[in-house]
Write a structure and sequence with these properties.
The chain is an alpha/beta fold and 354 residues long. It has one domain (2-345): TIM Barrel. The chain has helices at residues 2-12, 18-26, 58-61, 72-87, 106-117, 136-146, 162-167, 174-184, 204-216, 234-240, 249-261, 290-304, 315-321, and strands at residues 31-35, 92-96, 122-129, 150-158, 190-197, 221-226, 229-230, 268-271, 281-283. The chain has a 7-stranded parallel β-sheet. Strands 7-9 form a two-stranded antiparallel sheet. 42% of the residues are buried. The structure holds iron/sulfur cluster (SF4). The site of iron/sulfur cluster has 11 residues, from loops. Iron/sulfur cluster is lined by residues 41, 43-44, 52-53, 56, 58, 99-100, 130, 156.
């Protein structure tokens, strides 16, 4: 048993977990309190598209959307009380999770964020949104909070391949993500990218190209999800018709370890899998056992004698040499294939616009 524990502990240090990041930053455990502020999404209401992303049912990933609507103040108080009882925690991040949490006028956003931050045990904000929904006035507001609190802006990238974004009815492009990340620079907030592995039509090389692009951008954190099927979504029908298949447990462990190896060691890994409550999940069943999956990932990294970012330089070098990054657009980036050199993460040629 002692040997098992030692192996598990050393494996845990093989990637930069969100828990470790929070302990380093706050000196204690910090938990997220999820909030449903009642937002909708431009990809649902017809502004960008209708129907939403093919895999999306906000009830499946946002606990508060499954409950009768409460005020933000009540959601925060209830969430903190539950977490305090379970973990004896006393610091929390207010996590605006459901739908697109910047999709409102700035004064309304300010009122909602202020209400969440009003609780004395809240030490930060996490805001989930779309890259095409963060205009500069919204970023100015969020920057103001970032001067006083830890703030993480979570941007749904999912993949760098526009053909996959089109397949999922995302209504957005990789260029939009690059633009949003560039406009976040210098604002003291952390940027977290959401990605999905296992999208139909994406090869192993395609998924690794997404990792390499992330490594080349000033992105601070990532949430990695396995594609999974939720009830009453278009994806459920595609899955039932045999148009898409899910990774097996073993396949996902391999691909997520390959992905981790390509990310810089400084990038915080906020999630390593996606799931939904059993009532909402269609497939794959294995993602319900998160603990087993995390253990398998850790053991695979130990078996490989590998870790997150073994050859990837940390981003400060990027920032030092390319301080004007934010002035470039997606068109300035050329992703190259040479993943074996130290420069494989910096895949952009940053050619001046002609
Ligand atoms: S952008 Fe987010 S909230 Fe909107 S449809 Fe897609 S997954 Fe759902």
């Amino acid at each position: 048993m002692a040997a098992d524990r030692t192996q598990s502990e050393s494996a845990d240090s093989r990637y930069f977990s969100f828990g470790r990041f929070l302990r380093q930053r706050f000196g204690t455990r910090v938990y997220r309190v999820t909030i449903d502020a009642g937002f909708t999404c431009p990809n649902v209401d017809g502004t960008v598209a209708v129907g939403g992303c093919v895999y999306c049912d906000n009830r499946s990933f946002s606990p508060n959307r499954r409950l009768p609507r409460q005020t933000i103040r009540d959601q925060v108080a209830r969430g903190i009380a539950l977490l305090q009882k379970r973990y004896r925690a006393d610091k929390f991040i207010a996590y605006f999770q459901a739908a697109t949490n910047t999709y409102a006028p700035v004064d309304k956003l300010k009122r909602l964020y202020d209400e969440a931050l009003d609780h004395p045990n809240i030490v930060g904000l996490a805001i989930g949104t779309r890259p095409d929904c963060v205009p500069d006035p919204v970023l100015d507001l969020i920057e103001d909070y970032a001067r006083r609190y830890y703030v993480c802006l979570e941007l749904g990238l999912q993949t760098i391949h526009d053909r996959s974004l089109e397949w999922m009815n995302r209504g957005d492009t990789f260029a939009s993500f690059v633009d949003a990340v560039g406009r976040c620079r210098g604002r003291d907030l952390d940027v977290c990218a959401h990605v999905i592995l296992g999208l139909p039509g994406e090869s192993h090389a395609d998924m690794m190209a997404t990792a390499d692009a992330l490594a080349s951008l000033p992105v601070d954190a990532v949430k990695i999800h396995n594609l999974h099927v939720v009830r009453d979504t278009p994806l459920e029908k595609m899955y039932a018709d045999g148009q898409v298949r899910m990774f097996t447990f073993e396949e996902y462990v391999q691909v997520v370890c390959d992905f981790l190896e390509r990310l810089p060691a400084s990038m915080v890994i906020q999630r390593l899998s996606g799931d939904a409550p059993p009532k909402y999940l269609v497939a794959p069943e294995w993602c319900l056992n998160k603990q087993a999956l995390l253990e398998a990932i850790r053991h695979e990294l130990v078996r490989r004698d590998s870790r997150q970012g073994p050859t990837v330089p940390n981003r400060p070098a990027f920032n030092k040499f390319f301080p004007s990054w934010g002035t470039h657009s997606a068109a300035d980036f050329r992703i190259m294939d040479d993943h074996r050199t130290n420069f494989h993460v910096f895949v952009c040629s940053l050619l001046p616009r002609l």
